[in-house]
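pasting for the record
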Amino acid sequence: MAELSIKVGYKTPILKTGYVAMCILFPIWTILLPASLGVFIAVSISAPHSLSGLANIGIPLILISSILLSLLFTALTDETHLTATKEGVSFPLIFLPRLGFRRQWRWTDLRELDVSELRSGRMNLIMRLTGKFAAFDLGYLKNRELEEFLLAADLWGPQCQKSADLLELQKRLQRSPTGELGYTKMWEDELNRRFHATAFIPLEVDCTLQRRKYKIIRQLAFGGLSAIYLAQKDEIDLVVLKEAMVPANATLEAKKQSQELLNRESQMLFCLHHPNIAAVLDYFVEDDRHYLVLEYARGQDLKQFVHQHGHQKQETVVDWGIQIASILAFLHSRKPPIIHRDLTPDNLILQNDGTIMLIDFGIANEFIGTATGTMVGKQAYIAPEQLRGKANLQSDLYALGGTLHFLLTAVDPVPLSESHPRSIRPEIADSFDQLVAELTAFELERRITSANQALPRLKEVADFLSVKAK
């Protein structure tokens, strides 16, 4: 993976206007002025006494200055990104006079981040550096890019102080209702929703693992006998660490079973290569704790997304449903077939490009459930046979139907029952309602038998909705 680089665009109306103007004038300062300079030089060489000495000096100076100033102004209006890497921060060219004509600054130079309110009521992001400062009007920064930069400051500039107002701004960005997908919140509350509290103590920030290969940046969530962290690998890449711990008071048989379950999950996931499944990058055991290193997915889980934005359009849900069913078809086609066991909106990430990514599996949760007495999966999405300890491939289809019901209605399905989202939203197409009902049928004989059978049904609903929209 290439070195992580965060870019924050900063174009004020003046800069935008200036750039457009230079684009319009492009033929003049790139063709006409250089051509005029060439003609003047040719004339001066062929007829050196045709112009006065003042003209021989003044005209080329004016032409050359015009070309250079045009290049400089174009660069100033085009190079308007604040860029952050592990080495430091690079500022837009327009900030050079305020920063002593120094564009590159190391993270050790960044002393404080703050926000301030101007008399006009607009807010500024203030960056105080060693002996200098820069101010960015927040009105011209995109929320997602600003959130990424603030995370980069946490990652590479731990000595940088953040004001209380800045920290509050960062929290608001993480739960932004604007539609831009905050991603540092994507794991929050996951374990609180899944596990009971125990005496498990999570790792501290800046703790390192595997001989400093992985550095803990922040705790994303923890509870029960597990934790999830945002970490940095080799001081470059962001990854997610899933940590599971075998209870100290567990019997030897229970410890052996737990070890087998965790090893099974890691081996299984290492063999999975699918664009909509978070890749497992590493697995290791350290201090009796088991760690899975996962691909870092930028986005927001569907549970949180619906809680923020309400029920979704049928066209959107059926598109997501096709993606989820395709993931299940892939898992169920493995040899031996892989039963997910914990397919819920919590474990599905809506990435910033609109695609769905599956981020968690139920095997480790079997271990947690055995060790803590908690239930594997979310009650509203568990198939009747799975509750009896006899999960099969159709159990994942039941969870798919429950997930579709939630996305369409913003209401969890009633546990152990056939779901009819149309009873909550009458405008839902009858064919869509019937499909959800067949996915969540109580008896296996009435339930759709495979993901490959569900896929064409979902596509039929998508075609019907498309025709209806026209």
